[in-house]
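Anyone up for a design puzzle?
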């Protein structure tokens, strides 16, 4: 297979972690007879510094002409003051909108060798396997906004069509898993959540009758993710709730640095990124955890390129690296020696090479 992949390192640790994921993708290509072309482009704060825009036309062109997009992270204090007129995050939001990426998939799985990295008891988190499906282009992040010196407004709005399409994504995923969806909302307070609940019920009843549906208020979901995380299979939610809940869920796996994500639309072109931020406090030190980005590259192989065996090989290699004791600073136990980004990438590459 020949494929063009746009690589948007972004800001902070973004270029460091994407570099390791690119090394892994190149190794997979060489091992399985594929040809991947990597095209680098700017996004976020780095793009603002270079062009004044967080998403320059050249970056949009690179993404539109690629089979998939691999992104690191955007943001940093130098671009995020209260008076900032252009912010790095606008580039990411605009990219999602431009590519029509409305469904964000965030898998949360525990690895046996990493149970001690979570603040929760091993018996609570052992066997966790959750797929969060977050609606990505609607809700309060994309609604009308206004601010004066005395008041501000962020409007949360959804259409039935937006809810229908993301529900179908969750339904298809649930059919390939344990056929259970928990739909998260705040229907006791919000009209958007009442619409969300009624549309989800209708779509699943009509198109996925085999799927068991449970509605759960977002505050209850936040509690049960910690209390009984193994009870969740597919978790379907709107934009802001999904953003918050997946950061909470990262503690089940042990660190934000371990969780990948895929942003998908109607076409096969997807955006793949770790769920963590740009971590400017450790940028340039070579100590960031690249495993979430490498696992995002595995999702790229699966969902945009249709290379399931290669995706599983990368996921198995990350698990093998962790099983061998590889730990970056964010997941290292007190008193143990943490490895840097490059060494963590080397361990994954070694595991790929060792897999016959």
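Challenge accepted. My sequence:
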């Amino acid at each position: 297979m020949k494929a063009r992949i746009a690589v948007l390192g972004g800001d902070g640790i973004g270029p460091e972690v994407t570099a390791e994921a690119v090394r892994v993708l190149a190794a997979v290509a060489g091992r399985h007879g594929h040809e991947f072309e990597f095209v680098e482009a700017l996004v976020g704060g780095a793009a603002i510094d270079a062009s004044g825009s967080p998403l320059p036309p050249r970056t949009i062109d690179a993404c539109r002409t690629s089979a998939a997009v691999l992104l690191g992270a955007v943001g940093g204090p130098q671009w995020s003051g209260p008076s900032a007129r252009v912010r790095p995050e606008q580039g990411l939001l605009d990219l999602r909108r431009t590519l029509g990426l409305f469904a964000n998939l965030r898998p949360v799985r525990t690895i046996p060798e990493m149970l001690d990295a979570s603040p929760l008891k091993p018996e609570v988190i052992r066997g966790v396997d959750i797929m969060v499906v977050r609606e990505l282009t609607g809700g309060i992040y994309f609604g009308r906004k206004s601010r004066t010196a005395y008041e501000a407004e962020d409007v949360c709005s959804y259409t039935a069509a937006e809810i229908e399409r993301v529900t179908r994504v969750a339904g298809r995923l649930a059919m390939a898993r344990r056929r259970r969806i928990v739909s998260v909302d705040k229907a006791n307070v919000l009209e958007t959540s009442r619409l969300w609940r009624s549309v989800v019920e209708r779509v699943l009843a009509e198109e996925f009758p085999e799927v068991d549906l449970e509605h759960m208020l977002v505050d209850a979901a936040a509690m049960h993710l910690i209390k009984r995380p193994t009870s969740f299979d597919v978790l379907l939610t709107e934009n802001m709730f999904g953003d918050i809940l997946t950061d909470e869920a990262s503690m089940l796996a042990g660190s934000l640095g371990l969780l990948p994500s895929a942003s998908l639309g109607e076409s096969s072109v997807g955006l793949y990124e770790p769920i963590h931020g740009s971590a400017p406090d450790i940028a340039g030190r070579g100590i960031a955890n690249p495993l979430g980005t490498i696992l995002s590259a595995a999702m790229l192989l699966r969902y945009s390129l249709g290379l399931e065996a290669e995706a599983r090989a990368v996921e198995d290699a990350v698990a093998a690296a962790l099983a061998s004791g590889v730990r970056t600073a964010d997941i290292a136990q007190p008193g143990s020696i943490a490895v840097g980004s490059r060494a963590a990438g080397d361990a994954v590459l070694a595991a790929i090479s060792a897999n016959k």
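A detail worth pointing out: The mean pLDDT is 94.
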